[in-house]
Amino acid sequence: MNKSTNIIMVEDHPEYREIVEMAISRQDDMQLTDQFGTAERALQHLQNESLSAKPDVILLDLNLPSMGGLEALEEIPKVAPDAKIIILTQSDQEDDVLNAIMLGASGYLLKSSTVGQIVEGIKLVKQGGASLDARIARFVIDSLKTKLPPKEIDQLLSARELEVLELLAKGMVKKQIATTLGIGVTTVVSHVGHIYSKLEASNAPSAIAKGFKLGILEVND
Length: 221
Description:
The protein is α/β, with parallel strands linked by helices and 221 residues long.
């Protein structure tokens, strides 16, 4: 039996928290361990080293009272370095989307997403994938079409690393990539680590975004 995914939600609207909590409670492999109305309270909680249930995934709103979500996104890794962060917000503004991804968010979902999409997003991120709302993904790609001259990107990634990055961009997780390429999961993990290092990316979404920006990945309509 798979280990349950521990989730924390940082959202200042109680009604919306209840909707998400209800959806998560229906999942056998997930539990909402804590929820907070402010980023400050969440950070204070995460600083407790004696926490019995460390969060695997944190659902973070951007429009929070006092400390905003983007500021919290910079602080959370300092106290919960292993937690994956999914932005769950109403904002589809260009600055918010790109800043969140570049700051290390593993996913960006809009509150207009169905509860089913939110649950699937949590599962995908927990498995090491990138969870982006379809409209956000299209927007990110369109916003990062500026390419560097070919000589600056030539040989940046090996042929195999490029294959792995392309499959990450298609939403595959490491096990799926390993099966598709006929290689071991450990080898995929090694390739992903090299990709992150070479692209100076902290996670899959930022690596994919930089791949499009550099012209390493092709933009297909």
